[in-house]
Protein backbone atom coordinates (compact mmCIF):
# COMPACT_ATOMS: atom_id res chain seq x y z
CA UNK A 1 0.00 0.00 0.00
CA UNK A 2 1.46 3.38 -0.93
CA UNK A 3 1.97 6.15 1.58
CA UNK A 4 -1.14 8.14 0.58
CA UNK A 5 -3.42 5.13 0.96
CA UNK A 6 -1.85 4.23 4.29
CA UNK A 7 -2.34 7.77 5.60
CA UNK A 8 -5.89 7.93 4.24
CA UNK A 9 -6.86 4.59 5.81
CA UNK A 10 -5.42 5.55 9.19
CA UNK A 11 -7.19 8.93 9.07
CA UNK A 12 -10.54 7.28 8.31
CA UNK A 13 -10.10 4.69 11.08
CA UNK A 14 -9.29 7.40 13.64
CA UNK A 15 -12.05 9.72 12.42
CA UNK A 16 -14.59 6.90 12.80
CA UNK A 17 -13.42 6.16 16.34
CA UNK A 18 -13.71 9.84 17.31
CA UNK A 19 -17.13 10.31 15.69
CA UNK A 20 -18.54 7.02 17.00
CA UNK A 21 -17.79 8.14 20.57
CA UNK A 22 -19.79 11.32 19.99
CA UNK A 23 -22.76 10.25 17.87
CA UNK A 24 -24.89 8.63 20.55
CA UNK A 25 -24.24 11.30 23.15
CA UNK A 26 -24.88 14.18 20.75
CA UNK A 27 -27.62 12.65 18.62
CA UNK A 28 -26.11 13.10 15.20
CA UNK A 29 -25.15 10.75 12.39
CA UNK A 30 -22.24 10.88 9.99
CA UNK A 31 -20.87 9.24 6.89
CA UNK A 32 -17.34 9.24 5.53
CA UNK A 33 -16.82 9.36 1.78
CA UNK A 34 -13.26 8.65 0.65
CA UNK A 35 -12.38 9.16 -3.01
CA UNK A 36 -8.77 8.89 -4.20
CA UNK A 37 -6.98 11.75 -2.42
CA UNK A 38 -10.11 13.19 -0.81
CA UNK A 39 -11.98 12.41 2.40
CA UNK A 40 -15.35 14.04 3.07
CA UNK A 41 -17.29 13.70 6.29
CA UNK A 42 -21.01 14.43 6.12
CA UNK A 43 -23.22 14.99 9.13
CA UNK A 44 -26.92 14.89 9.87
CA UNK A 45 -28.95 16.15 12.85
CA UNK A 46 -32.63 16.72 13.48
CA UNK A 47 -32.26 20.40 12.55
CA UNK A 48 -29.66 19.99 9.78
CA UNK A 49 -30.71 17.18 7.44
CA UNK A 50 -27.32 16.93 5.67
CA UNK A 51 -24.18 19.04 5.91
CA UNK A 52 -20.55 18.70 4.90
CA UNK A 53 -18.63 18.75 8.17
CA UNK A 54 -15.05 18.16 7.11
CA UNK A 55 -13.07 17.83 3.88
CA UNK A 56 -9.43 16.90 3.64
CA UNK A 57 -7.15 16.38 0.65
CA UNK A 58 -4.26 13.94 1.01
CA UNK A 59 -1.26 14.68 -1.19
CA UNK A 60 1.61 12.23 -1.17
CA UNK A 61 5.19 13.26 -0.59
CA UNK A 62 6.96 14.84 -3.51
CA UNK A 63 10.66 15.06 -2.82
CA UNK A 64 10.43 15.44 0.93
CA UNK A 65 7.06 15.86 2.58
CA UNK A 66 3.39 15.03 2.05
CA UNK A 67 0.54 17.42 2.67
CA UNK A 68 -2.88 17.23 4.27
CA UNK A 69 -5.12 20.17 3.41
CA UNK A 70 -8.40 20.79 5.23
CA UNK A 71 -10.76 22.87 3.13
CA UNK A 72 -14.10 22.67 4.92
CA UNK A 73 -14.74 22.67 8.65
CA UNK A 74 -18.35 23.06 9.76
CA UNK A 75 -20.71 22.05 12.54
CA UNK A 76 -24.22 23.42 13.02
CA UNK A 77 -24.88 25.58 16.07
CA UNK A 78 -26.55 22.72 17.95
CA UNK A 79 -23.24 20.81 17.91
CA UNK A 80 -20.90 23.71 18.77
CA UNK A 81 -18.66 23.33 21.83
CA UNK A 82 -18.40 19.55 21.53
CA UNK A 83 -14.88 19.38 20.06
CA UNK A 84 -16.07 17.56 16.96
CA UNK A 85 -14.01 19.50 14.43
CA UNK A 86 -11.09 20.26 16.74
CA UNK A 87 -10.95 16.55 17.51
CA UNK A 88 -10.79 15.78 13.78
CA UNK A 89 -8.10 18.44 13.35
CA UNK A 90 -6.06 16.97 16.21
CA UNK A 91 -6.33 13.45 14.75
CA UNK A 92 -5.23 14.82 11.38
CA UNK A 93 -2.22 16.58 12.87
CA UNK A 94 -1.07 13.59 14.94
CA UNK A 95 -1.23 11.23 11.95
CA UNK A 96 0.48 13.82 9.75
CA UNK A 97 3.39 14.03 12.20
CA UNK A 98 3.72 10.26 12.20
CA UNK A 99 4.14 10.21 8.40
CA UNK A 100 6.07 13.51 8.12
CA UNK A 101 3.22 15.35 6.39
CA UNK A 102 2.44 19.05 6.71
CA UNK A 103 -1.12 20.11 7.62
CA UNK A 104 -2.85 23.21 6.28
CA UNK A 105 -6.30 24.73 6.65
CA UNK A 106 -7.35 26.74 3.59
CA UNK A 107 -10.30 28.86 2.47
CA UNK A 108 -11.04 30.00 6.01
CA UNK A 109 -13.44 32.80 6.89
CA UNK A 110 -11.56 35.76 8.36
CA UNK A 111 -12.84 35.29 11.91
CA UNK A 112 -11.73 31.64 12.06
CA UNK A 113 -8.38 32.53 10.47
CA UNK A 114 -7.75 35.14 13.17
CA UNK A 115 -8.92 32.77 15.90
CA UNK A 116 -6.56 30.03 14.67
CA UNK A 117 -3.56 32.38 14.39
CA UNK A 118 -4.08 34.65 17.41
CA UNK A 119 -5.70 32.27 19.93
CA UNK A 120 -4.76 28.76 18.80
CA UNK A 121 -1.22 29.45 17.55
CA UNK A 122 -1.47 28.20 13.97
CA UNK A 123 1.20 29.52 11.62
CA UNK A 124 -0.08 32.09 9.09
CA UNK A 125 0.85 31.26 5.50
CA UNK A 126 1.27 33.83 2.72
CA UNK A 127 -1.63 32.30 0.80
CA UNK A 128 -4.78 34.22 1.77
CA UNK A 129 -6.73 32.75 4.72
CA UNK A 130 -4.45 29.72 5.04
CA UNK A 131 -2.70 28.46 8.15
CA UNK A 132 -0.34 25.62 8.92
CA UNK A 133 -0.82 23.50 12.01
CA UNK A 134 2.41 23.14 13.97
CA UNK A 135 3.42 21.61 17.30
CA UNK A 136 2.54 24.82 19.16
CA UNK A 137 -1.01 24.94 17.71
CA UNK A 138 -3.52 24.33 20.49
CA UNK A 139 -6.06 21.80 19.18
CA UNK A 140 -7.42 20.83 22.62
Write out key terms for the chains shown.
alpha+beta; Aminopeptidase; 140 residues; N-acetyltransferase domain-containing protein; 35% helix
Polypeptide structure, described:
The chain has 140 residues and is α+β, with helices and mostly antiparallel strands. The chain has one domain (3-133): 3-Layer(aba) Sandwich (Aminopeptidase), CATH 3.40.630. The longest helix has 24 residues, at 3-26. The chain has three helices and seven strands. Helix 1 runs antiparallel to helix 2 (84-98). The protein has a seven-stranded mixed sheet, covered by helices on one side. Helices cover 35% and strands 29% of the residues. The protein has helices at residues 3-26, 84-98, 110-119; strands at residues 29-35, 38-44, 51-59, 66-73, 101-105, 123-124, 131-133.
Concise description?
It comes from Metabacillus endolithicus. With 140 residues, this protein is an alpha+beta fold.
What strand line-up does the widest sheet have?
Answer: 1-2-3-4-5-7-6
In DSSP terms (H or I, runs of 4 or more residues), the helix count works out at 3
Top-tier CATH class:
Alpha Beta
User: Biggest β-sheet: count, sense, barrel?
Assistant: 7 strands, mixed
Weakly predicted, low-confidence segments = none
Overall morphology: globular
Overall structural class, as computed from helix and strand content, comes to: alpha+beta
Fraction of residues in β-strands = 25-35%
Q: From the coordinates shown, what is the CATH architecture?
A: 3-Layer(aba) Sandwich
Radius of gyration: 15 Å
**CATH fold-level topology:** Aminopeptidase
Can you give the helix content as a percent range? 25-40%
Q: SSE string, helix = H, strand = E?
A: HEEEEHEHEE
Mean pLDDT over the full residue set:
91
Distance between the termini: 32 Å
